[in-house]
Amino acid sequence: MSGKEPKSAKKRKQEKENAKEPANDLPARTEKLGRKEYEKELARLHVELVKLQQWVVHKGLKVCIVFEGRDGAGKGGTIKAITERVSPRIFRVNALTAPTERQKSQMYIQRYIQHFPAAGEIAIFDRSWYNRAGVERVMGFCSEEQAEGFLKAVPLVERAMVDSGIILLKYWLEVSPKEQQRRLESRVDDGRKIWKLSPMDIKSYHRWDEMLKATDTPWAPWFVANSEDKKRVRLNLISHLLKQIPYEELPKDEVKLGKRKIGKYQAADYPFKMIRGLF
After folding, report:
1. In this structure, are residues 164 and 224 in contact, taking their beta carbons and an 8 Å threshold?
2. 62-69/166-174 β-pairing
3. Of 118, 128, 91, which is closest to residue 238 (Cα–Cα)?
4. CA distance 22 to 227
5. Residues 172-210 as b or e (16 or more Cβ within 10 Å = b)
6. CB-CB contact of 42 with 234 (8 Å)
7. Which of 99, 69, 107 is nearest to 201 (CA)?
8. Residue 267 — very low, low, confident or very high, per pLDDT cuts 50/70/90?
9. What Å distances lie between residue 234 and 32, 58, 157, 226, 279, CA to CA?
10. What is the pLDDT of residue 58?
């Protein structure tokens, strides 16, 4: 008899380990992280993300990463930090708009399924099917019965995802009420951020705890990241993400650039529409 542990047993073992992983209840560091220190560490993590990308393609892995959190917690900035130096064809970001009338008539999860990862892809959801338990519930876009039914059904859907071979990671970005209030208020007066502000920011202020408790399972646990300092949460979350997917650095082909032959340059005789140099 082979000493190799059955695949199903391995899954159960991993689920137990996930369930036992202690919550990060340590107090957040209060001092702000300097830009130089942040950029140096982020550059190092970007190199590791590229290695992960190559490994995912090489092994045909299917990775799905869900980002949820309190409004103003920094989900968009964290996703941008993750995807800044990798291929958008492999790290695909999904930020779905409001459902169409046709989509409203479909099974709720249906419009999300088409964005699930295929082999060699990492699908990132900037907000996800959890809208039903948060935004839709708060704004009256679904009934209480529909919201409660969702909370009962989604662990089964996520179990099916994991059983199909998808590596599912769910992140919740947590921020204190005081810092959240400051960030929401900054959106009002900043022309660069006003598009981020909506009635949902205010009304969904308190309705998340029930969702987290109902959908935190051994096979798809929530990982909570403290987001008081946006620079720190980006580094902490990327570091955690890299530990959840075992990967190896693949051997690189040696690249040699031959000597470029540059002949006599002659400008093209054509009336191009040139951009004015204002800066």
Report:
1. no
2. parallel
3. 91
4. 18
5. bbbbeeebbeebbeebeeeeeeeeebeebbebbeeebee
6. yes
7. 69
8. confident
9. 13, 26, 28, 10, 32
10. 98
Write the secondary structure of 34-96 as one string of H (helix), E (strand) and C (coil): CHHHHHHHHHHHHHHHHHHHHHHHHHCCEEEEEEEECCCCCHHHHHHHHHCCCCCCCEEEECC
Give the model confidence (pLDDT) of 233-264 as tens digits.
Answer: 999 999 999 999 999 999 988 888 878 777 77
Contacts of 186 (CB under 8 A, 6+ apart): 193
**pLDDT one-digit tens code per residue, 207-241:** 677 889 999 999 999 999 998 889 999 999 999 99
d(CA 130, CA 112): 11
HSE value, Cβ hemisphere, 13 Å, CA-based, for 203: 12
Please report where in the chains the tokens 């839709």 appear, as a residue: 136
Q: Which residues pair with 224 in a beta bridge?
A: 172
Alpha helices in the chain (DSSP H): 7-20, 35-59, 75-83, 101-104, 110-113, 135-139, 144-163, 177-189, 199-203, 209-215, 230-244
Long-range pairs for 12-21 at CB < 8 Å and ≥24 separation?
A: 15/218, 15/219, 16/218, 18/218, 18/219, 18/221, 19/218, 19/221, 21/221
Q: C-alpha dihedral over 86, 92, 93, 95, to 10 degrees?
A: 170
Dist CA 60 CA 154 (whole Å)? 26
pLDDT for 26 = 45
Dist. CA 110–CA 94, nearest whole Å: 14
Q: Given strand 166-174, what is the order of strands in its sheet?
A: 91-94, 121-126, 62-69, 166-174, 222-226
